[in-house]
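Lesson 9: reading folded outputs for more than one chain in a single document. The general rule is that every protein is listed as its sequence immediately followed by its structure tokens, and records are never interleaved. Here is the first one.
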Amino acid sequence: MFKFNFDIEDADDEASIIDNSVEKAVASQSEVSQNPFKELPVQHLLDSLPSQLSCSPITITLQESADTIHLARRDLFDARFQAISEGTGVPENENDALDPHSALAFLEAPSDLVPGVYEGGLKTWECSLDLVDYLRSLEQKGNFFVFGKRILEIGCGTAVPSTYLLNAIFSSTKQDKDTVLHLQDYNDSALELVTFPNILLAWYMSPASASFRSTVSDANQSGENDSPIFPPPDPSSPAEIPITTEMKAAFETSLREYRIIIRFFSGSWNTFDLERTGGKYDIVLTSETIYRVDSLPSLLDLLFNACKPAASVTPPDPDTTSRLVLSSEPSYLCLVAAKVFYFGVGGGTTEFVQAVEQSRDRNGQKAEVKTVWEKNTGVKRKIMQLAWNVT
């Protein structure tokens, strides 16, 4: 097991810790069967919610403008409490500590991953915030549109980029076309304990929840029922959000009204089934997923196959006959955010670029890697854009 010590929760801890179980974890890695591809239905995730969520703000300072973005995220101690209260993860012996369903074992352990068993999805990592910074800059420049797109976040964990995008959709006018958001993480427990709660919080903190909150407020003021008190939607402040049947129903209604199709998938990258998810994507995002060199082939294969190929486009020119023009830019956006080097596990951006240069997709196409965002002070980090079949 490895300790990165670069997650948001443990930002003040600079020590790199490898505990006494690391040799066993690494030695047994080849014996651990990879989690197979599986979909977790939204109804299952709604049923897995506790009666209340405790959340705190994540503050993202934009690199170009120094403006700030606030997003609500479920508190790690709250996820820990749920794991304890539901008995999901109290290991009875050493072998049970490596059970992928033992969420509490990972919440309590001084480690951030067990290769092939737990991949760090319960914590928030800096590079996911970097993706929000870069996506916001693209939006401000008019170079990024999310409506009507198919979006995949690989290794989503606390899903900070996806919650940002979802909040933006819920904060805009309703669209006349579907936006598809798919979230993938290795562990079921990460999707249940942090990913989906954060998605629900993104809705609650948006204007889309106003109708529900107004209805509850009116009922409370009139004394019609004993509904719990819902706090104002302020992502910049800690809050405790009651979870009720009515709230869940309102969330699902908003998904339909805003034409958002959201799905959740667990399992290893090499088992991800694009046929079952509906095919390729317009936007593919991943952060903090290149820390282990031996996992790069499966990640690259998924990135290669998940991205839409370059396409012919019809320019809007009413004065001339419509014609097809081959785009010189990819018709998809594929972003990989990562630290330059991961202490203790050997991965980093150099190894990733080398792996990309040595790889080909199923059509023999080579990828191009371009650094589009970087931070060179403190823990050095980058966002890389990948493209295939660019003329």
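And here is the second record, again sequence then tokens.
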Amino acid sequence: MAEPGLLIVTGMSGAGKTQAVQSLEDLGYFCVDNLPPALIPKFAELVSQSGGKIDKVALVVDIRGGAFFSQATEVLHDLSRQGYRYEILFLEASDETLVRRYKESRRRHPLDTQGQVLEVIREERKLLREIRGRANKIIDTSNLSNNQLKEQIISQYGGEKETGRLLITVMSFGYKYGLPLDADLVIDVRFLPNPHYIPELRCLTGNDVPVQRHVLDQDVTKEFMEKLIDFVTFLIPHYQNEGKATLMIAIGCTGGRHRSVTLANKLGDVLTEKGCRVNVRHRDIMRV
């Protein structure tokens, strides 16, 4: 991926912008936090006039700017018209995750004046809807550790030297809890026989051998996995040729505990054996 002249970092308060900026600083980005949008064109001008000395700038623009933030969309339109090159990174997280993070940190949400965290989170989400729609990259941090977020930032913005091979994340999830926002490919495996209806398997997960055997020994599963592996291995080199740094493959079943977990583990193992750089995550495995 070609490095952008300007990287605009924005998103939900509490979604991990601080950790993202720290990772960008480690990559050599000149970072400015809580910049009023009206000043973005000045930084764009400085970057363009630096003769390549300033080639990586990350500007954090978010709701903390108050009344100034309303100018963000207009300013970005102006930048595009003037021919400046920029990308937008939007950090996202679920309402539930953001509420939990604010309770754990005991920090006040920038919009909160009456202790109604969930209400102001929903209000912020509405205010950010337009800039989110313009984002080049959206990262959902709901189920990411700080290290996992850092790895995604490095893979996306670290350049060829830091990135190396394409980083593939294979994630299991449950459709009853919603689609993953940042998935590139979504694979629905609800057509496979469901271990949930077998009493001795119901309380287990796809990490347990009895469930794995039940799912993987089905003829339909064997045929499906052959086709899925062929499909994914066909796509990977083409994604790499286009400069894609990360690929998220989300595999979903009803509850995200049995079928999707089993197949995500299996696909992760196969891709690892083929020399790919793979993370396997199970978003909903602990949900009841």
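What the second record shows: Strands lie at 6-11, 30-32, 57-60, 86-92, 137-140, 167-174, 185-188, 246-253, 277-282.
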